[in-house]
Description:
The complex is a heterodimer of chains A (835) and B (104). Helix content of chain A is 67%, strand content 3%.
Amino acid sequence: MSEAPRKTALRLHRELTAIWATPPGLGRLQAVNHTTIGKRFMLTALVFFAIGGLLAMLIRVQLATTQSAFLDAASYAQVFTMHGVVMMFLFAIPFFEGLAMYLLPKMLGTRDLAFPRMSAYGYWCYLFGGTFLVGALLAGVAPDGGWFLYTPLSSRVHTPGINADVWLLGITFVEISALSAAIEILVSILKLRAPGMSLTRMPVFAWYMLVVGGMMLIGFPPLILGSILLEAERAFDLPFFDPARGGDPLLWQHLFWLFGHPEVYIIFLPAAGALSTIIPTLARRPLEGYEIVVAAIVAMAFLSFGLWVHHMYTVGIPHVALSFFSAASGLVAIPTGVQIFAWLATLAHGRPRFSVPMLHVFGFMTVFVLGGLTGVMLAMVPFDWQAHDTHFVVAHLHYVLVGGFVFPMLAAAYYWLPHIFGRQSVQHLSHAAFWMVFLGFNLTFLAMHLTGLRGMPRRVYTYPPEAGWEVLNFVSSMGGFIMTTGFALVALDLLLLAVFGKPFRRNPWQAKTLEWAMPTPPPAYAFAALPEIAGRADRLDPDRLGPSLAAGNGYLAATRHGWMEVLAVDMTTGRPEQLVILPPRSVLPLVTAIATGAVFAALLLKVYWLALAATLAVAVLFLLWTRACGLTADLAPLGVGKSVTLPPHVQTEKPPSHWAMVFTLAADATLYASLLFGCLFLWLSAPNWPPAFAMDVSIPGSAAVAVLLTAAALLGRVAAKAGTRATAPLLLAGLAQVAALAVLVVLLLGIHDRATHHAAAAGIFAVWSYAALHGAVGLVFVLFGLWRIRTGHVSTARSLDLRLGRLWHDFTCASGLLAMAFPFVLQLLTRGGSP
Amino acid sequence: MTQPGLPLLLAGWVVWAAGFLLLYAVQATGCRMGWHEEALGPVSALRIALIGVAAIVACAIVLVWKRAERVRDRSPLGRIVRLANGAAALAALCFAGVLWLSPC
């Protein structure tokens, strides 16, 4: 290479680093870069994994012998609950979120995710929420009702302390992080790819994460709704789960498992995506059956939502309904099998390298397939009736989760740590560590199947000597300690790799994906120039492509105004269509997360005025985020390299933020649908219906709200088309929102006393509260629009801020009309629908 | 020739999921309203309702599948769309229990 291009590459590196890198010292608090945030997510998740593992050891010590006095019943309840909570909510999901954040922009050939500040905000929410939960454990007030927090055990009558509130508020706090990550992942994959990377040229990991992002978007809202309803019951006595007042504990189980079962696949699919990337590289052959694997992932996503009742076979559900869930539970083995056979075929047709990641792939294959087989057993209703709530189920779920997530995670760690640290493993400890984990795991959980089949129930803190479970429990405990020692060796091995590993030049695995077409450790900007992709992005030549991109051969190979620039493409074809200007690093995500934490802390302490004040602070802080977004003048299309010019994203019809709003509303709609169906479920299934009192609802009041919300939506549409002349329609839309809000408050005050008497009135109260909250947020959108017009961010070409508001007003109108009709529908059903 | 997009990729499974929820809702509502005790000939009103809904759902999924098959696009995305919709059509078999299992 000549001297001149090297100088150019170095200068470009320095200029891009100045724009994209995180400053040292306190400047780290401003970090928004995907590499930094991804690493933080993964490291924090591993700390929580260690905490969860320690809790597991406490459980195994307690159960190793009969009538153990190591833990009392109350402490044991907190320990096993927090083990599940930490592993499911604080380790598994956040770890793959971090992995996805770290890898996706690099695999997709772009420089960052679509909303870097949301990534940072999500990380801080996760850190604070997780610390909140673990802090509660240290204070002795941790949740103690199981990781699924079943009612009525978790109701205020049976759990009067704050233990259940810690679960409900802490998990909801963490779920903010998961939902923001889902939207981030979806928009980034669909819009922020390298030019030419059509959907079917994407590396298969991106397909997996695309499907997982969609599943999180639909799967988490029912859990958030359930948490809100249960907290409302505990704090304000709204009886959603109290059968004496028209509630039903089964409503909680439905809402929880509507999230809880897809959750298993939300954890497994990213791990499978990592395997689908690692196995072809190590087998030195492209993945067999790329197309059928993608179809299988889509099938798994939908089937996983059709299984939720298979956790509830014993609650008394009629046979025909059980058959739907049992059949779907059996069917899900087919797309899973498709992927396993695709991996086996890839290995069989290739020339596998038996390296350390491959050892963990072997661990995955063995353990996960065994877990899948017991899963098919449990999918069959008669067997499940026998094994339900025994240690057999505990053994099954650990085979699935450790097999389906932990072994792939370790394979991924050994595979991608060289990318993160720029060093390779020296492999002195790797083999011993793997075998200790593998043998220890199987010793623990293979024996546990038998303990379960011999009848030992879950969640008991002790058992009598005559039960005959002691030898098997002792074996499980010994296996647990061997496995823990193995994990400690893995941690030491990875630490040694990071500090003393062998440096390498580039691409140590001879991989074919884009993340290796960059220096390692990666620079903050990932690619000095964005590549043009002309074929499948998992069949590239990073060794040739990397130096070429570093020399500036590609798109956006120059800096402009210090802007953080990436390209947005057509979702299907990958044709470049927008120049996206990302906002710079900021401390605002941290401050906003602190304010969000204050909301949850105030709710936990039941200081509601402080919760309201903190909520207002969160709204103001989010508005401050927008100061760094947008343009104050219309720009002509800008050159992005290769003689291509593109408009800035704020001057296009559907930029990434449009899709983020669409996905946010999709999650919101799922929560709302869950609420409406939850109320109808109570009418169908709960005892003590209909309520003893009349639920008279003001027809003029309801009609007024419907008219005002419709007017606000229509005025929002007029404003979105009016450009700089949108002030008048926006003001009118704001007045309509205020008036609708005022009428809704009057309606809520009229029903609030009856809401504590019966679930029917509580349901109406919840539905109207939802409408009122959306009206209030609609008002914020109006004020935001007015502010943006005043600051010169809006013109006919730059109407994005107003169009986002229009989407919100439309949704508020549609959901508000349903909310106003809902009490009348419920009245009709309760009057005319009694058997 | 237009390329099929994400909506057609998901269409068959969206119909399957909607049908799944609809069947569960009809079963629960029918039991609550006592339709299983109202005989229409040799079978109950609830079973007729369930079979009717299952048949409509199955037909809808098959129609989506046929629509996907009509896309003559030979690109990888076209093949993925056809595979996904074919799988959704086959998954309608999990509603077969409406024919003989006790509904309440």
